[in-house]
Amino acid sequence: MVRAAVLSAVGTPLDVTDIDLPEPGPGQVRVRLAAAGVCHSDLSLSNGTLRQPVPAVLGHEGAGTVVSVGEGVEGPAPGDQVVLNWAPSCGECHFCASLAEPWLCVNANAGTTVPYARTKAGGDLYPGLSTAVFAEETVVSSRSVLPLPAGVPLTEAALLGCAALTGYGAVHHSARVRSGESVVVFGAGGVGLAVLQSARLAGAGTVIAVDVSPHKEELARAAGADEYLIASDTTAKEIRKLTGGLGADVAIECVGRGETIRAAWNSTRRGGRTTVVGVGGKEEQVQFTALEIFHFARTLTGCVYGNCDPARDLPVLAEHVREGRLDLGQLVTERIGLEGIPAAFDAMLAGRGGRALVVFGD
């Protein structure tokens, strides 16, 4: 038995309880978690914005140590420190094999619908985003574990599994920020703070952070923001004023709301680029006129997992961490236990703080 935070039904609070976690089967790896980040996507799974079979153990941003491996596993071995990959590519579908776009793999979340453990009462239990890291231990596909490069603290390495990779990729792979370009970031949560740091890594010129909360200004500036704005109806005008009357070269939206996406679009210059990282519900609508699309010649793109290939990008981020250019601890505003996850969800809904990190004992 291991302790886990279980979502019994969509829209209900998580229940910290014991679950029956089996030994790994063929092609599987069992991992003892050191830490797990509480991401907005976990909140979206819990409230039904994203689909998730239940009952389930949520959590997809984690790092830990391999405990045991199943038959046929090559590579990961007991004692190895690893980062969990919540969207492992199959290597065979059209997006993986033909387009070399593993972040769009059609089979990445196939494990989500397959029971991986049992509840205390003996019922099936599903893994949130195939990883289920809101637990002391988890069992995942061997494709879901990536070796942790040397020199990165295991606890903070959990953030490499989602926030850091997504933020880095949004800047370097999706928006493709160039040296000297102005960048505005909407949302200063865990991913937004990673975007701000990554914009600095890319050599951005003026970096502007926008959020609804005045309490995040210090976090945003520490992560690399030159300017901090409280979101309002005049945000786009304020951004144009800060960018010589033109608008930002790049806007990156990390909230997932229709009005915020629209504000990001309005904030970019003619010919500018808007990247949407935030995951919103299908009820969130964004409208454009045909004339403005022609006139402004802006580009609007979605961004899944930072358009990253974790196997390629994780070593790059690790090098930035070792050299002090990327500070994972700067993304964390609270360290909690499993029991603190519901409060962390409430904080996200209220727009408070950056990343809450669940830290497991020895």
Written description of the protein model:
- The chain is of the alpha/beta class and 362 residues long.
- The protein is built from 11 helices and 18 strands.
- Strands 3, 5, 6, 9, 10, 17 and 18 form a 7-stranded mixed sheet that branches. Strands 13-12-11-14-15-16 form a 6-stranded parallel sheet, with helices on both faces.
- Strand 7 (117-118) and strand 8 (124-127) form a beta hairpin.
- The longest helix is centred in the C-terminal third of the chain and has 13 residues, at 310-322.
- The two termini are 16 Å apart.
Beginning-to-end CA distance, first to last residue: 16 Å
Task: Please give the radius of gyration in angstroms.
Answer: 20 Å
* Large-scale geometry: globular
Question: In terms of per-residue confidence, which ranges show pLDDT below 50 for 5 or more consecutive residues?
Answer: none
| Series of secondary-structure elements, N-terminal to C-terminal | EEEHEEEHEEEEHHEHEHEHEHEHEHEHE
Structural class: alpha/beta
Separate helix tally: 11
Number of strands: 18
Strand content: 25-35%
Q: Characterize the largest beta sheet: strand count, sense, and whether it forms a barrel.
A: 7 strands, mixed
Fraction of residues in H or I helices: 25-40%
Mean pLDDT: 94
